[in-house]
User: Which sequence fits this backbone?
């Protein structure tokens, strides 16, 4: 094995692609987090309103810690809103003095364009779950194979190539392929949720500049998933190259 080749062909491009996408999502989010959505609701009320409008009254909403850790959990039917999106570390505990002054005062908007976009995207996932979106179903079905594949596969491939037991390496490559498929199946799920999100926010009056902002935030988020799929594919091709080179 040639580690120099691995660094140039896999590690460096992966770091560049992933770093670019992460930077882009951070700067885009920060930009639109300063712009008021014009929707006079806080993050939790906005999430509730969107879910109820879709008939998803059974979906719970919970605060969660971290930056942009917002997600929809299809198993528990829970939509989790991060502190960054809901606007403060004191989320989850009700503070009446804060509630009394939660009308926009010119500082942080009550519900920013960025926060509205992220919440609407997660509601999009909840709708996909109810509609039994085929891509979402495939994605959830292959999770166990992916967890096994992405953990063990590289070792099988490296051991197989090193020991010249190519059968072992091929088994590893097939297992790794499941992980690659997973990252690509994620793309239609994410893009689908963002498409729904844009329809939700524009129906609630986020139009013009604000709709462009929401689109920007969702597009930046989508690029992080594209980056993950590309880096998985690059790694797969490198492993394939190792095995094929060994056979010759
Ligand atoms: Zn998503």
Assistant:
């Amino acid at each position: 094995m040639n580690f120099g080749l691995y660094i140039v062909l896999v590690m460096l491009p992966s770091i560049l692609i992933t770093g670019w996408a992460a930077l882009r999502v951070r700067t885009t989010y920060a930009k639109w987090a300063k712009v008021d959505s014009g929707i006079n609701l806080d993050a939790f009320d906005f999430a509730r309103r969107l879910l109820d409008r879709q008939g998803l009254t059974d979906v719970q909403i919970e605060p969660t810690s971290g930056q942009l850790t917002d997600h929809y959990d299809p198993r528990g039917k829970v939509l989790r809103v991060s502190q960054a999106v809901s606007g403060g570390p004191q989320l989850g505990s009700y503070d009446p003095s804060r509630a009394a002054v939660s009308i926009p005062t010119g500082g942080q908007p009550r519900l920013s364009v960025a926060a509205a976009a992220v919440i609407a995207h997660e509601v999009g996932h909840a709708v996909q779950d109810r509609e039994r979106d085929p891509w979402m179903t495939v994605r959830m079905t292959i999770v166990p194979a992916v967890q096994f594949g992405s953990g063990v596969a590289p070792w099988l491939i490296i051991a197989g190539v090193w020991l010249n037991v190519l059968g072992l390496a091929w088994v590893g490559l097939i297992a790794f392929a499941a992980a690659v498929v997973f990252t690509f199946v994620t793309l239609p799920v994410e893009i689908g949720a963002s498409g729904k999100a844009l329809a939700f926010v524009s129906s609630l009056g986020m139009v013009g500049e604000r709709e462009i902002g929401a689109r920007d935030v969702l597009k930046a988020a989508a690029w992080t998933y594209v980056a993950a799929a590309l880096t998985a594919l690059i790694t797969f091709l490198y492993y394939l190259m190792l095995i094929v080179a060994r056979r010759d």
